[in-house]
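Morning - heme C inputs below, output right after.
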Amino acid sequence: MSKFLKLTASVILFGAIATTGANAQDADAGKKVFRKCAACHAVGKGAKNKVGPELNELIGRVAGSLEDYKYSKAMTAVGEEGLVWNNDTLTEYLTKPRGFIKGTKMAFGGLKKDAEIENVIAYLATYSASAEQAAAEPEEMAEPAETADATSGQAPAGLAADAVIPDHGNYHLGRVALPEEITAWDIDVRPDGAGLPVGKGTVADGGVIYDESCAVCHGVFGEGEGRWPVLSGGFDTLTADRPEKTIGSYWPFASTIFDYVNRAMPFGNARSLSADETYAVTAYLLYLNDIVTDESFELSNETFSDIKLPNEENFYPDDRLEEPNFAKGTEPCMQNCGDRPAEIVMRARVLDVTPDNDEEGGAGGID
Ligand code: HEC
Ligand code: HEC
């Protein structure tokens, strides 16, 4: 029952996303623009400082004034001189951050289109209680004196005027990734467990999460609802005509399950699980596949290496040395390789490889 409710809810959600484009509010469009900011800034309930300060209650905030964020000297200074964030100051800053505040450490080239700027400000204003009030009040902020020249013009029309040329690398492109960004991207887990975060979770805990966040698509027992991927069973089918390749029957390493779930699931809400939740739900997937049998089993960064998947031994590290041409170090043959011309023995259409009804062949599986 609850399954259906959830499915309906997500359909409605997708519907909503698809239609907002047509009659977009400024703030809605601004939410999209904010993706350009989101690598460095959070806004909304529970927003924390990231690379940049959190942006709740931004409208009316004195620049550089959050106590728990370490601003550049330049940002603190303009705040002390009286710069307050409102429609106008934000427009100037977001057009050309380093033109408006020389020495700001915000490594962002600026937004090119006026509409993007208006919309992102409208979006941020929805998280500022004082927004309406501030808009009604006359401006009384002081321009930072030394940057007045840089801000007097309109938004630069062309790329060249706008571009900040980085002074690093051969090609002066992009910028050096911040350590925080590298940490956020570097989430891969290797078969030997390298890269696993610290954490733990039991089969029983995982069952609760699974029922709530996964079963709607993958089935209560991992059997797969409709054509969503099957996550359990399929043992002894690998040599059959239609092998059922599941994480239990086919995947070689439990690390791939953890990595994949952590990276990509739940579908549509990826990266929403904590490390503990990911351990728990991975433990539960092992349980659904009879790889662990005890509901109190706890998977953690420490117990992880005890887990062996049944099909691991059928995979081997391919160093290419077994491959005849490669091993000999010869160039691979690119023309007239066989002793007779290629002959077509079957066509896909005749072979009927594409299932044409819902019963035949499920979705999913890594091929
Ligand atoms: C690459 C990271 C990065 C991106 C992308 C980025 N910012 Fe920033 N932002 C920062 C940093 C760092 C600071 C602090 C600047 C300083 O102290 O000089 C900052 C400061 C700010 C401030 C001043 C806040 C305060 O408390 O005074 C505002 C407003 C702001 N950013 C808005 C935005 C918006 C809107 C976007 C997207 C259009 C954006 N930023 C994109 C890193 C970023
Ligand atoms: C809205 C439907 C949906 C939900 C909810 C969902 N998944 Fe998935 N899952 C998918 C789809 C679709 C794929 C295949 C994605 C692809 O191949 O690109 C998939 C693939 C997977 C796979 C890989 C299967 C294989 O053999 O390739 C695993 C493991 C998995 N999901 C686990 C989970 C877990 C754990 C949860 C809950 C935390 C979850 N999924 C929630 C739709 C969903």
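Note: Residues 187-367 form a domain with the Cytochrome Bc1 Complex; Chain D, domain 2 fold (CATH 1.10.760.10).

O.
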